[in-house]
Amino acid sequence: MSTVDQTREGDVLVLTINNPPVNAFSPGVPEGLHAGLDAAEGDAGVRSVVIIGGGRTFIAGADIKTFDLPREQAPDLRGFIARLDAFTKPTVAAIHGTALGGGLEVALACTYRVATRDAQLGLPEVKLGVLPGAGGTQRLPRVVGVPKALEMMLGGNPIKATEAKELGLVDELVEGDLREGAVAFARAHADERPLPRLSERRAEGGSPELFAAAREGIRKTHRGQLSPSLIIDLAEMATSQPFQEGWDAEARLFMQAKDSPQSRGLRHIFFAEREAGKIPGLTRDTPTTEIRAAGIIGAGTMGGGIAMNFLNAGIPVTIVETSQDALDRGLSVIRKNYENTAKKGRLTLEQVEGRMNLLTPTLDMGDLKDADIIIEAVFENMDVKKDIFTRLDAIAKPGAILATNTSTLDVNEIASVTSRPEQVIGLHFFSPANVMRLLEIVRADKTSDSVLATSLALARRIKKVGVVVGVCDGFVGNRMIHRYGDEARKLVEEGARPQDADAAMHALGLPMGPFEMSDMAGLDVGYLIRQHQAKVAGKPKPDGWLDRIVEAGRKGQKTQAGIYDYPDGRKPVPAASTDELLTTYRQEKGLQSREISQEEATERLVYSLVNEGARILEEGIAQRAGDIDVIYIYGYGFPAYRGGPMRYADEMGLKNVAAALEKYGQTPAPLLRQLADEGKTFEQWDWEKARG
Ligand code: 3H9
């Protein structure tokens, strides 16, 4: 089987692309397709050509792995598309699975497009920080009109073939065998002349107001990003310039976007997200358990949110509480959440009922006896958790997974109270658990491979991004955020205002800075932990400026007063009382206040994350730097276009990061020091070798 097979079906030449798994436009594909067009050109008996994907999909786009190759070595998608557009015999794209990015661009340069009903078509390049670079920005507006083309190119989400048919993007939906249908279509249209070419059409529906509104819109949806504005510029050119002008500009702007740190960051995350699911020792043959029924202990905010993930995936849930009141409250919150989604038109009332019907409330833990997985989501107290796991050990059926949603506690210690520690795992959901995509999968010392593999598969099924981490205080995300919080507090002690520290992170693209986040989470939580830790360690009662804010009764957003004031309930406004408290605090403690630049604040905050991340890597708590990046993007709002904190450090150069840490009085972690000295990046670090 060659990369592109040529088969004659009478007077139709069928070109089948075989480049598994997704028929990306990799080296070999353009050569094969050109050879196919050569054959069609040279054979008078061939009257039309069909291009189809072998395996599960049409072309999923340019091969993202080749983006950093020198131009001469990269597969020439544009060259092939230019030839296809000018081809003198009709060509038909036969689409199943997905026609994405360069794949849809190939289809757009064909004379016709036919598709199976369940196929999907889209231009997702914006999600990789680039733009459709092989004619998409010029052809799509000429078929579906400018408003729809902008929606597709700026949102990056595919549309269904049925919608594409209505829009004229697909000429025919094929009900039976796609290949047969496409060949019949090609034959039926073999003699139509002149050949309809999208490049010769006009792009309708654009206006100065529309483009202005689109530019305004991306300020909110794609704040700080380059490629969306380039996409709008190109769509505007499609309405005002000849095709050739737009096509040439697109090539230039594509290269500009592709070579930007933003695109490097987004491509890094694309692959990191897929890598995160790969664990040494786990193979396709590792046995997994099918999860048919779940049990959840605790119907509070976390338990309820977790339950919704299962219900959304059609998995029945039994939810346990200790009192009828708590159970009723939990259920009514879940129902309200679904009803709100229904009000927004994203669920029907029937679907709401369908989901609620999958939920069984109970006060009896014994009702969990048939669950394939049981997730404990009660408050963070080791004794309470141990008690629950002791009872679960007696109740759960053999083979059931026993999971804890702890965010800090030692999963090994929890597992030790059961007779089956190999079945115990941490599943750390992030709040709100029905929304946040991250799932830290905490592998304890004795967790079996099968339980780990099942948890990874479950994460995919409930639409989470699962990242495997090891046991330590706070695992990966919270352990790093503690260092970040410490640094933020220090910045303020030294003279920064809380809003300055927050602004430093906004400048990097984070929606919230450290203090806005603390106010939202509730300041009393950290306060109680600090007080408790000091007491246990026999140290004096902590008296930081943040402790004083809590002691003044300001617990954060929930009390409408924290580090910030919340006059309208949600929006933080700098508080005069915090300024006064800080002035007194600094005076009492003899702290010198100094001007702190935004650059210093950003560096100190991000590099404190990076430094702790380096320690986490060295200890093997996270496998790869990319795993940490995925955690920060899906769990903590780090902007994907920065690629995550570790990638950001790579982009800045680890030598510079180490030097900056030293300048600010911090010691670079040994791994960071080592890589900086070797002139390497975290991404280049051979973690498998380092761990033997
Ligand atoms: C583009 O086209 C630019 C042009 O406009 C202009 C050029 C001049 N390249 O996601 P999965 C790999 S930009 C290379 O797990 P699924 C992926 O890494 C491109 N590799 O499967 C994974 O590898 P591994 C625009 C790719 O079924 C394996 O395939 N296109 C590519 O859940 C399976 O992937 C896109 O952005 C690629 N293009 O989802 C589409 N795509 O097994 C990106 C996938 O080693 N792709 N791989 O981990 C997707 O959205 C999903 O992969 C897709 C399948 C929906 C296709």
Automatic annotation (TrEMBL):
Catalytic reactions on record: a (3S)-3-hydroxyacyl-CoA + NAD(+) = a 3-oxoacyl-CoA + NADH + H(+)
Pfam (any one): 3HCDH
UniProt record, GO biological process: fatty acid beta-oxidation
Cross-referenced SUPFAM superfamilies: 6-phosphogluconate dehydrogenase C-terminal domain-like, ClpP/crotonase, NAD(P)-binding Rossmann-fold domains
Record's subcellular location: Peroxisome
Start and end residues of each 3-hydroxyacyl-CoA dehydrogenase NAD binding domain: 294-470
Annotated ranges, domain 3-hydroxyacyl-CoA dehydrogenase C-terminal: 474-566, 602-680
InterPro entries tied to this protein: 3-OHacyl-CoA_DH_NAD-bd, 3HC_DH_C, 6-PGluconate_DH-like_C_sf, ClpP/crotonase-like_dom_sf, Enoyl-CoA_hydra/iso, NAD(P)-bd_dom_sf
Pathway stated in the Swiss-Prot or TrEMBL entry: Lipid metabolism; fatty acid beta-oxidation
Primary localization class, coarse: other
Source organism superkingdom: Bacteria
UniProt GO MF annotations: (3S)-3-hydroxyacyl-CoA dehydrogenase (NAD+) activity; enoyl-CoA hydratase activity; isomerase activity; NAD+ binding
Record key words, sorted: Fatty acid metabolism, Isomerase, Lipid degradation, Lipid metabolism, Lyase, Multifunctional enzyme, NAD, Oxidoreductase, Peroxisome
Subunit structure: Monomer.
Protein name as annotated: 3-hydroxyacyl-CoA dehydrogenase
